[in-house]
């Protein structure tokens, strides 16, 4: 009798874990598709430079990441460089940390999901959800490795959204 109860408990725990993982994966897929849909531009590019500056009131630090676009997966920007503006950064020994913002390094190659802030700057759509880095032959986001099918998947979703909107 006790063995049956124990087995039932194990089975229920295992089933709940599988359901939780499945629902989490579905939620991640919906977030991914939403970020693609909401992004005006999706670029593959190299980070050329990173600079942080105070805002006009010297109350907040903003970081400016200059990209050299290599390919557009969605939209097109007719420029050899684009600048992304992200809240937070470091100036001297003062650092302003904004949770959820993507972190960039000079020289890294990324897929970045963008929106246009104004004529001069772009922003990362989805914050740290909107950046994938190419490391050692694999696409990585927040230390999670993604399939080599990431770019074809993005292109497919963009094409589906384009067909739906037209």
Features:
two-stranded antiparallel ribbon; OB fold (Dihydrolipoamide Acetyltransferase, E2P); 2 domains; 166 residues
Structure characterization notes:
17% of the residues are buried. A hairpin with a 5-residue loop joins strand 6 and strand 7. The radius of gyration is 20 Å and the shape is globular. It is α+β, with helices and mostly antiparallel strands. The chain folds into 2 domains: 38 residues; 127 residues, OB fold (Dihydrolipoamide Acetyltransferase, E2P) (Beta Barrel), CATH 2.40.50. Strands 1, 2, 3, 6, 7, 8, 9 and 10 form an 8-stranded antiparallel β-sheet that branches. About 5% of the residues have low confidence.
Q: At the third CATH level, what is the topology name of the largest domain?
A: OB fold (Dihydrolipoamide Acetyltransferase, E2P)
Characterize the overall form. Answer: globular
Rounded average pLDDT: 82
Distance between the termini: 63 Å
Strand fraction equals 35-45%
Number of strands: 10
Q: Which stretches of 5+ consecutive residues score pLDDT under 50?
A: 19-27
Q: What's the number of structural domains?
A: 2
CATH architecture of the largest domain: Beta Barrel
Estimated radius of gyration: 20 Å
Give the fraction of residues assigned to helices: 25-40%
Q: Which CATH C-level class of the largest domain is it?
A: Mainly Beta
Oligomer: single chain
Main β-sheet: number of strands, strand sense, barrel status? 8 strands, antiparallel
Count of runs of 4 or more consecutive helical residues: 2
Estimated structural class: alpha+beta
